[in-house]
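Hi again,

Forgot to attach this to my earlier email, sorry! This is the prediction with adenosine-5'-diphosphate bound. I've pasted everything inline since the attachment limit keeps bouncing my files.
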Amino acid sequence: MHVLESSMYVAVNMLGDSVIQHLEKNGSGSLQSHIKDLSALLSLRITVISKTGDVLADSDQDPLTMDNHLRRPEIQAASITGIGATARYSTTLGREYRYLAVPLALNGEVLAYIRVAKSLSEFAAEVTEERSMLIRNSIFIALLALALGFVFFSQQANKLEHLIVVLKDFTNGKFEKRLPDAGSLGLSEISESINQIARQSEISFSRVAEDRNRLATVFTCMVEGVIDVDLEQTILHVNDAAVRLLSIVSISFVGQPICHAIRNQTITDALDRAIKQNTVERAQVVLQRDLSTITLDVYAASLQNDYFEPMGAVLVLHDITEVTNLERIRTDFVANASHELKTPIAAIRAITETLLDDRAIDLESTQHFIKRLHAQSLRVADLIQDLMTISRLESSQGISDYSKVDLRALINRAVEVAKIPAGEKNQIIETKLPDEEFFLFADSHNLSQLLDNLLDNAVKYTQDSGLISIILECDRRWVTLKVCDNGLGMSSDQQQRIFERFYRVDKARSQSLGGTGLGLSIVKNIAEKHGGSIEVTSKIGAGSTFTLRLPTDTGAATDA
Ligand code: ADP
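Structure tokens for the complex follow:
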């Protein structure tokens, strides 16, 4: 069916019921105006024709002026088939029309016919109008879709751009940001999973960073020098201690071959062996510094990854200068002590052999030898006494017997003891002590020994009729004791060394005076154990001043 006919068929069926109802209610009286209304509504010409062919109503014409329509083809066809459709030129209206008619039946009986007509030119104009409206609407919808698409696309593009920026951050190890909700891009699950990975990576990265910082701190604080190299022996890490120990100018050597930083063959050979043989190598090197030397224990250990593949080596440098020095001091001390003991023992042996061999020796000579024997045995005894004191001071119980010591009383007692040999040399010992009592927490026995040694030396190394002064000064923080004499004095070189064990300015003089060469090293040891110090100022021929400084709080109060 033609589009026009289809729409006319729908219209005629719709109108049918309305016209039947009208005819039933009102007859054909007001049918004309009712038809006109419907026509205006549907833009159709409507005609109602009685079953005998009389026109009862027509929307465009006066029915009274219209002839019988029973012979019209569309009415004929409608009466036979129930629907009649034709197209012909209307002489009444002077236009080409398409007609469609159907019978109006009630209870199976035909009451009338209803016909609708539409001018083909009108329909074409309407179609054209509708088509252009359709085109306009389509263009409008297309433009609207384009605009909406553009807005949507730019929003999505922004989201995509943001997504890419955040992903780039992730690949650079920055996990603070999160991917935006990418639901509109259909990536909601993926973005959530990536965010989850980012959260976990952030936690892992912060843990790794924490561990790395901790390691770096340990690395920096280590006393041992540490250098980390890869398989090509390129420096990866150097800690401050290594820079200091090897006098590497700076850590700018990181990234350079180790042979540029270390020019010591022993160290580089050890490293080479460790890498090539996958072993731990050990070596000891002595390096020259400006004025001194340092001894280093060097460990070179190969490094492997989790799959036991070699990945480089680490050098650990341990400064053992102090240990080797102490070892040397200990060896020297044993050698010196043996030597010091050997001399009087050899003398004792020689004297006793002489006495044993020479039976005709006279009494006077015997007396002489016995006096020498006595002197040598005293020397051995003094030496052993001093050695035992040093041994005790260096042991853990060296200074342990702390108590509240009356310093003035201690000095007065030492002076009384020293006055005996001083008196034999007509020397005067004067003291300048504070009027008020002064107490100190100290090891009284050791402090007495310190005073005895200083006064003994002052007496020994001051000529007859000399003057020895003891001056005690105390303030809130320090106790200062000066032992001054106007004796032999010593050069500045000698002043540097007199606190060393077995050092004597004049060995023969010291020995003849019963010196062991250990007195001042004992003094220094005791002073330092009390947190203090001992210094000397001296001038040859003018005398010496020994200054002992002890803190008033020796740190011993809590130990006492
Ligand atoms: P010694 O048993 O030989 O006295 P010390 O260690 O007590 O050993 O002293 C070391 C050296 O310091 C002495 O041999 C002496 O040469 C020098 N000396 C110590 N005290 C004085 C002093 N008051 N005046 C001059 N020389 C001193």
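The CA atoms of residues 319 and 462 lie 44 Å apart. The longest strand covers residues 95-106.

That should be everything now.

G.
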